[in-house]
Specification:
- Pfam families: TerD.
- Helix content is about 5%, strand content about 45%.
- It is mainly β and about 190 residues long.
- The mean pLDDT is about 85.
Length: about 190
């Protein structure tokens, strides 16, 4: 059963029958809001949202990053499946796979961000969501709705943190401004 997360809500990533998750997939999906054109006809926009995963150590230092220009973490535990430039199609438009057991011991938090590389703000984006899926079963664990009007063009979606022997996920949902993850680092640091 999936949990629909609210901003600031935390969910443990332990399996219902016990044990912890070992492989998760963070999916990002979106659609462009049709712009009113001549004679009231709507025309589709080209909106390029980008998902990124930022790996931080216990001191809050950026240890590695996975984004459209670096699709794999240095150790191989985090893998971005590729850049979707339009959001067309059903389901997840961009996917980041994480082997939680392979994440280096010095990494204590994974922060997932989304930004509009083409610069449109979120008032022009519909049906945006991020979701966490148990890769071993294909079951959706948690979903966070990112849609909503706003003048921001980026969002700090969620973080996955070491929690004892396992991991937990916290929905952040903080708005930000920036076309790549580098622009978001000052805003991300406040959530570590």
């Amino acid at each position: 059963m999936s949990i629909s997360l609210q901003k600031g809500q935390k969910v443990s990533l332990t399996k219902p029958g016990g044990g912890t998750l070992t492989r998760v997939r963070m999916g990002l999906g979106w659609d462009a809001v049709a712009k009113k054109g001549l004679f009231g006809k709507g025309r589709a926009q080209s909106i390029d949202l980008d998902a990124s995963c930022l790996l931080f150590d216990a001191s809050g230092n950026l240890a590695d990053q996975v984004w459209f220009r670096q699709l794999r973490s240095k150790d191989g535990s985090v893998l971005h499946t590729g850049d979707n430039l339009t959001g067309e199609g059903e389901g997840d438009d961009e996917v980041i796979n994480v082997d939680l057991q392979g994440v280096p011991a010095n990494v204590t938090q994974l922060v997932f961000t989304v930004n509009s590389f083409t610069g449109q703000d979120f008032s022009q984006i519909a049906n945006a969501f991020c979701r966490l899926v148990d890769e071993t079963t294909g079951q959706e664990i948690a979903r966070y709705d990112l849609s909503g009007a706003g003048q921001h063009n980026a969002q700090i979606m969620a973080k996955v943190s070491r929690d004892g022997d396992g991991w937990s996920m916290t929905a952040i949902g903080a708005t930000a401004t920036g076309r790549t993850f580098q622009h978001l680092l000052p805003a991300v640091s406040t959530h570590l």
